[in-house]
Every structure is written in structure tokens, then in C-alpha cells.
Write a structure and sequence with these properties.
- Helices cover about 65% and strands about 0% of the residues.
- It has about 475 residues and is mostly helical.
Length: about 475
Amino acid sequence: MKRRYEFIAAGGLAALAVLAGAGPAVAQEEERITADAVQAVMDNIWVLVAAVLVIFMQAGFALVEAGMTRAKNVANIMMKNLMDFCAGVLAFGAVGFALAFGPGGRFLGTKGWFLDPGSYDFGNLSLPTYFIFQVAFAATSATIVSGAMAERTKFKSYFLYSLAITGFIYPVVVRWTWGGGWLSRFGEGFHDFAGSTVVHSVGGWAALMGAAILGPRIGKYGSDGKPRAIPGHSIPLAVTGAFILLIGWFGFNPGSELAADSAVPAIAVTTLLAGCAGAVSAMITIWVKTGKPDVGMTANGLLAGLVGITAGTAVVDNWGAVAIGAVAGVLVVFSVLFFDRIRVDDPVGAISVHGVCGAWGTLAVGLFATTSGSALGDGAFDGLFHGGGAGRLATQAVGVGAVFLWTVVTAGALFLLLKFTIGLRVSEQEEIEGLDVLEHGSPGYAPDMASVRSSATPATPVRATELAGAGR
């Protein structure tokens, strides 16, 4: 009996020892699960905050465009920026998101229409989080076109091409790149971290086709073919818009990390440095060229630097970011002057800021990327200037060229279709009097009714055209 009790006691002690040894392992597993869950929540919250910042950029685009154009068209401009976002959300949600990220091939997604939740897996990010972030980018690409075609485009045509860009033209490019398509696997792997080409150049090249097919504003070019200045009505609005865009870019670039991790602050720094370098270099360039530090061109230099760094913001060091932004600031000045010389009327410089500087920033990845200063860690690589060879630069060039060809062909076909069906341009009378009243029924700025009445006889009614003219 004694030996029996000794056996039972030994067994009990062994069981306690096993449990004691297993305790820390179970606790560690629970701790790991808890940490993963917390990280997932943090990732989703951060990306949602970043998405809101990107959506806020719509206000910045609206103010820049309004400030750099005439007061008689300000309501039309605000309406366009409002509706390309709202229409873009619906088009991208219905079909664009599936084309970009749904199951399918290397060129198009073929499933997941209307945000079907069974078709997607984004790791820590939920489908709602990822959609809201991506749709903000889609709307950005569409709204870029508005500025280049300002003051002379029919609103109904604008509404339709906003749907086409967000529902088809832009999502196809996303599929090729961020959606795991052919371009992401080409050569050494096309790299566009936050969209210098994917977002900005798509908008810029579509703007180029729209402005070219639409034609210049009345009075923009004299009989000798030389461009004439058509000043915008509010520099304060334009500069305020540029500052809003700068703020929004801290969602655009750091948010593209798609996680709340240590890379986010580093990406924010390269974003800031490049934007400021672009503003300073654009100011110096236009100052040397014209004798004056032009305010509008300097604001465009800020945006040019931000667009330029967007592709490589996570793979370049701080001084690489400064160099990329500074070159973008110089480029935007000469690009604006170039398009003016070839009679492509772009009231806000959208083609130069987003198309040209987006292409430059994408190519710059192949030059300035460095493993030593990258925020990506294991995903870093070296560009040509850091001993990485020309292979990456060649891959980037193929990507820039492919997106350019796709966008100019599809956007060009779209604008020509609109031109020869419902019409793309307003009448001469509408353009001269302003689009606010004749397109939308009311001026963007309320006229001074007292001054209008004092200039008219009691028997003469105030006409809509007079109200429109009072706000010019």
C-alpha cells in the first residue's frame, strides 16, 4: 500500500511539473495573439486616418483650381471637384475595385464586383479599410483632370469621364502595379510606392489629352500664337489649397505603408523634404527666368516636389528626397512654359505637376533608391547612383512608358467620343459669361446687389448674365 501511495504522489508531482513548464508557453502564446490583434487594430485605424487625409486633399485640389481660375467659374469648379469624388466612389466601388484587386489575371480582375467580401484578403486590413483608402486615391487621379480642362468643359461631359476614369482607366493601371499584375513582376519589379505614376501620371496624362482635344480658352493665345496670361482670381485660395494638399500628403505617402509601424515617420520626413525642396527650386527658377518670385508657380513647385517623391518615398534617404523634389521644382517651371508654347492650355499646370513630375519621380527611384537609407528594411534596393546598376531604372522606364501609352490612348478615345456625341466644350457665350450661372443656375460668389441695382433703372430687371458678370 505504501509503495502505491508513493507511485501516486510521484505521478502528481510530475503532472504539476508539466503544468508549471507549460504555463509560460501558454502565456507567451496568449501574449503573442493579443499583440497581433492589437497590431491589426492599429493598422486599420492608421490607414483609415490616412484615407481621411487623402480625401481631405479633394478640398485642396478644389481651392487650387478655383484660385488659379476666374471667379465667374468658381461654382462650376467646386461642383466638379465635389462630384468627381462622389461619382468616383460609386464607380470604383461597383467595378473599379474589382478590376484592380479582385481575383483574375495579370491585366484585369474578374471577380469581386460591388465589394463582394468573399473575394478579397488584405492581411491585417479589413475590406472596408482598404477600400476607403484606395477609393481616395482613385478620386485623386480623376480630379487632376479637372484643372487642365477648367473654364470651358461641359459639366455633363465631365461627370461622364470622371466615371470612366475611376471605373476603368485608373483601375487597370492599379491592377498592373499594386494589384499584382504584369508590371509588378516585370524586370526587377516596377516600384511606385504611393503613386507618382499610378495615381498622378494617370491623372496628368488624361489631363493632357483632355486639354489638347478641348482646345485653349478664348483669348489665351493672340493672333501671333503667343500665350497671354489669364490671371486667377484668388492667390489666397490657391496657396491655402496647396497647404491642404501638403497636409493630405502625410496620409497619401505614409498611409501607403498600410501599417502602423516604424517606417511611417521616415516616409513622412522624405515627403516633407521633397515638397519644400520643390517649392524653393521652383521659386528660384521662375525668379531667375522672369525677374519675379511668382506665387502660383512656387505653389506648383511644392506640389511638384510632393508628386515627385511619392514613388520613392520609402526607398530613398533624406538627401535623395531633397534632390528629387528640387529637380521636380525646376521641371515644373519649364514644363508649364513648354505646354504654353505648344498651345496646350492648362490653367493650373496639372499636366506638368502630375504628369511630367510623376514620371520624373518614378524614374528617380531607379537613380536614388538606397538600402542604407530606406524605410522598407528587407524590401529595400539600390538605384544607379548607389551602385545598383541600370536594371531598376530600365524597369521604371518601361512602367512609365506603359502607363503613358495606356492612358493617352484610352483617355484620348474617351474625350473624342464625348466630343462627337454629347459635346465636350461649352458654347462661346457660356465661356465668355462664365459657367456658374449658365451651367449651374447661380454664381459662385453672391454679387453686391446694391451696386447692381444702382446701375440699373427700376424698370430694367437684373439678368442672369449680369449676375454672372458681377462676380468676375
